[in-house]
Design a protein that fits this description.
The chain is of the alpha/beta class. It folds into 2 domains: 36 residues; 260 residues, Glycosidases (TIM Barrel). The protein contains 11 helices and 8 strands. Strands 1-2-3-4-5-6-7-8 form an 8-stranded parallel beta barrel, surrounded by 4 helices. It is globular, with a radius of gyration of 28 Å. The N and C termini lie far apart (81 Å).
Length: 350
């Protein structure tokens, strides 16, 4: 090479060597190189809960992203989990409950009976589904139709869905089935829910056998009806009191029910209990329920006794329901729901 060309070539080699040395030095813990500017950082700011009494404009919520920061505040809606085999819209959104002690002359205990005008107040308060007990084991299949039917008719006229419910005792399966079929076929009723909590049959194994038998017969008789199962909360039967109903037949009755409605009453837990936290109790009940039944079962969460439930409880129930893709929520029951809870509950609307 010519001397001048050789000098230029040596200068270029020297520059390259210096650059390589800088890059190696930066990657070994020295000053960061330019590529580090493309990395992302995380924050630890506390999430805030958005509260609104306006109905949401959507019924779906994207799954929460995987992140090392705390999850974002839940959106003001409960997300639909999966498309149901049968139409389950009546179980979605915001519901409220009444029982025979509320509306019937036979069982009312001296308080003002719930009637059609109360249904107007439910609708005005944003309730979308009325869950109504149609009878008891020691009463006719349909109790006091002269009082019950006007309540159902008013709910329908106000655009509310109606789900009838009944609590079988399992002592007389044919009587239980008769009550349930009458409720499910009642004019104006959109769906039927079975309250699975009676322990009158003392032997757990026999009670489970009768529950499976009743559920099988009910599904066969009402093949097109959307059935809801209302079980004890799994935290109770799995952790707190496994002897309440040992070896509950989750898998055996799973095919019979379309929607599951655990009685997740955090208000029944002691104030110093870890389960009194509404968010944790709701989340754990849904997780355990799906552990027993499958990851995609539809859940409508029934929160605590309403007059013992705070707005903070409602926030916790909602957050857990949204994160776990529950389709709806409610408190028990209408009579005990104070007006101060109407606003926070709006976020459950579909």
């Amino acid at each position: 090479m010519r001397p001048r060309v050789l000098a230029v070539w040596l200068s270029c080699v020297l520059v390259v060597a210096v650059v390589v040395a800088l890059v190696v030095d930066g990657s070994a813990g020295g000053a960061p190189v330019a590529v580090a500017a493309t990395s992302t950082t995380t924050t630890t700011t506390e999430p805030t809960t958005t509260s609104t009494t306006e109905p949401p404009t959507t019924t779906t919520t994207a799954p929460l992203p995987t992140t090392t920061t705390r999850p974002p505040a839940p959106p003001p809606t409960v997300a639909v989990a999966v498309a149901p085999q049968r139409n389950a819209v009546m179980y979605s959104g915001l519901g409220t409950w009444i029982d025979v002690y509320d509306w019937s002359a036979t069982f009312n205990r001296g308080s003002e009976r719930v009637g059609p005008s109360d249904v107007d107040r439910m609708a005005d308060a944003g309730m979308q589904t009325l869950y109504v007990q149609t009878s008891k084991w020691d009463a006719p299949d349909i109790l006091e139709p002269e009082h019950l039917l006007p309540i159902i008719a008013r709910a329908k006229s106000r655009g509310m869905a109606v789900v009838a419910w009944y609590l079988p005792t399992f002592e007389n399966l044919q009587a239980d089935l008769s009550h349930l079929l009458a409720a499910g076929r009642l004019q104006g009723v959109d769906a039927l829910a079975v309250d699975i909590e009676s322990t009158k049959v003392a032997d757990d194994a026999e009670r489970s056998r009768r529950l499976v038998d009743l559920s099988t017969q009910l599904r066969a008789a009402l093949p097109n009806t959307t059935l809801g199962g209302i079980p004890f909360p799994p935290v109770v039967t799995d952790v707190i009191n496994p002897n309440l109903w040992s070896d509950f037949p989750w898998q055996a009755i799973a095919p019979m029910y379309d929607v599951w409605m655990p009685m997740s009453y955090q208000t029944m837990r002691k104030s110093d209990s870890e389960w009194r936290d509404a968010y944790r109790y709701t989340a754990e009940n849904i997780d355990r329920l799906r552990g027993h039944l499958g990851p995609n079962v539809m859940v409508h969460i029934i929160g605590g006794i309403a007059d013992q439930t705070t707005t903070a409880d409602v926030d916790g129930i909602l957050r857990a329901a949204v994160e776990r893709r529950a389709i709806g929520g409610s408190l028990y029951d209408w009579r005990t729901t104070g007006a101060g809870l109407y606003g926070p509950l709006q976020r459950f609307r579909r």
